[in-house]
Every structure is written in C-alpha cells, then in structure tokens.
Amino acid sequence: MIKYKTFIEDLNCEKPYFYFSTPQYELLADGLMYEMNFSDFTALRKKVNHYLHSDGLRGKVLVGAIPFDSNLPGSVFLTSNWKIDCLGYNNRKIDEWQQNIIQPIQLREVPECEEYTEAVRMAVKDINEKVYKKIVLARGLEIIYQEDIEVSHILKRIYSSNQSGYTYATNIYGDYTLAGASPEMLISKRDRYISSNPLAGSRPRGKNCEEDERYAEELCKSEKDLCEHSIVVEYISSKFKEICKELHFSQKPSLLKTKQMWHLSTIISGTLLADTNVIDLATLIHPTPAICGVPVDKTRNRIKELEGFNRNLYTGIIGWCDENGDGDWAIILRGSEIYRNRVNIFAGAGIVKDSNPAEELAETNAKLSTMLFNLGIIKK
Ligand SMILES: C=C(O[C@@H]1C=C(C(=O)O)C=C[C@H]1O)C(=O)O
User: Fold this and answer.
1) Ligand 1 pocket member 333 (CB < 6 A)
2) 2.60.120.620, 3.10.310.10, 3.60.120.10, 3.40.50.970: which CATH number matches 18-86+107-374?
3) How far away, in angstroms, is 41 Cα from ligand 1 center?
4) ipTM for this model
5) What does the alpha-carbon distance between residue 379 and residue 369 come to, in Å, rounded to a whole number?
C-alpha cells in the first residue's frame, strides 16, 4: 500500500515559506515570491484590489500574515509556486514526532505574572468607569535552548495535535518561523458565501472525563463568559449585516474543544450583496473583540499601554487569497516565533467587568500550554 504523506509530513529539515491547513485541505507556497508592502490596511486593500482588477493574480495566490495593528506597515506575498490538496481523514500520530525534542534551559515570563494581573485589575477599573466594554490582554513566555531547535519537528507536532483547527507556518518574515495551531477562523469566502467563527469565553480541558464535562457545563452557563462572547458576535454580525443579504447565526453559542481548551463558539455566515474580496472582508472586521476589544481604537491603544510588549503578528491574521478574491484567514493564536535557539509564545484572555485577575492568568496559562505541549515541554 502506498503511504500517503501530507505536505507537512513530507518536510525533511527544510522550513516552508508558507503553510496553511484546515481540517479539509492544506496549502503550501514555496519558491520565488513577489513581496507586496503596505503602510496600513487602507494601502493593502488598494493594492490587492488593483491586482485583482488587472488580472495580476491569475494563476497566483496571495499569502501572508497581517499584523494585529491595522495602522502598522506589513507585507504579503504573491506566488505562482503553490499547491493545495484535500485532507481526508488521516491519522495524525503525534508520537511519531516525539523523538529529537530537546528541553529548554530557561523560561522567562514577559511580563511577569504579577504585572499581568495588575494590568487586568487596571482594565477592570477602566471597564467599571465605562472607558470601554471589553479588552483582551495578553502575555508571553520566552523559551531559551542550549542549541538551535529543529523547526520541521515542531511543525509536525503542531500539525499532528491540531486535527480540527488551522495549522500555520511561515518563514517569510525575516529570521524566524511563525508557527502555530489556531482554533479561530476570522473569515472564509467562496464566491458570495462568507463565514466567520469567533471564539470568546474559555475554560481549560479537565484532567479526567468528569472534570472535563464539568468545565464545559460551567462555561455554557457562565454569565461572564456568555457576555464576553455576545460582544464579539454582535460586533461581527453588525459588520456582516451591512454587506450581506442573508445572515445566519445561532442566538446561543456552541462549544468548541481543542486538545487544551474549551471555547464558546458561534458560526456567523451570510451571502454577499456585492462581490467583495477576502482581504477587504478580513480588514473590515479585524481586529475583532475576540482579540482586541470594544471600542476598537480605544482598546488597541490601551493594550499597548497595559501589555508592555509589541504584539507584531500575534493576534494578527494569516491566510491566502486567490485570483477570484476567495480565501481563508485565521487569527494568529496559540503560536510561536521560533528564532534559532529561542522561542516566544503568547496567549491572551478577554477581560470584562466581572473578570478576576487570577482566573484570567490561569486562562492564559492554559492557552500557553498548547505550544508548550507542541514544543514537548509539557506532556499533555
Ligand atoms: C487571545 C487568545 O484567545 C482569544 C481569546 C479567547 C477568550 O478570551 O476566551 C478565546 C479565543 C480567542 O479568541 C489567545 O489564545 O491568545
């Protein structure tokens, strides 16, 4: 029997220029690329529309990652060197990629836990004073190794443990690899059909079945988490209402589980009134309150003050756009920046009026565990 290997399983020691997969397909873009720089989202939209209307994307695909902050410059890439393949059911065995995992010599919190809980306290105060309604605050871990780590092993582990989410890896942004296992699709577009699947409101998975079910049940009933979730659904659905003739979403969120987390989830879908490309759609709704806050400008500025580090591409978006303006863009979450012997990982939590600093810290720890597991630092 011929053993079918996916693009990611087929990697030897090389790092892919750009890799993106969903449970249904995987896309790999490699080789020569044209870099399209942009100064902000408005400039990006203009350039992409120009390319699409002048047939400049024929046979090509646009791939890349767009920063969290829409006022910052960035770049996306155009290439004819790309392939896409269906992913049917395949048995992703993480154990196969257990070998060659090295352990770090140092882990450093950026910022320190106490600074993070203090930032949450300040945000709750802002919310009580009605400065804003919700804000997402993140923190990071810097992981140092004695020697350079083998990126292709880590990618195989990320892919294998992320059967139901979006796996991404790119090497086109300088001297590091951005790679992770995002659970959240910002926008998907095929012809006139569009959908978004925001997540907000979270619990860790339990240590046993009983605890796991209890956490899931608690999440479904939690007023605080339901409120956190409804803010995001309201934001995206009101943006979609302006551009869609039909809009569908359930009034009650469902549960989505990853290996490490439970999330409240809502699929919002619609049919576009006029053909709009996926970059226009992504930049219309990004950053959503799932990773930024309400109102957007106020919370984006406050995030810079309270977090004390630069998010860059973390909580930005990653994906592709084809010659028809179709494509998928996921939020850059549960990811890592891998530099030779150093890895930076990040995680955030949504803060609303009833947030408790210690619980939000625990939530970020649970989210960080996705990459800690993929790096082989923790066992589960
Ligand atoms: C910010 C992160 O996650 C986001 C925040 C969530 C929440 O507050 O419940 C859930 C999923 C994501 O939208 C992260 O994973 O770093």
Assistant:
1) yes
2) 3.60.120.10
3) 23
4) 0.99
5) 10
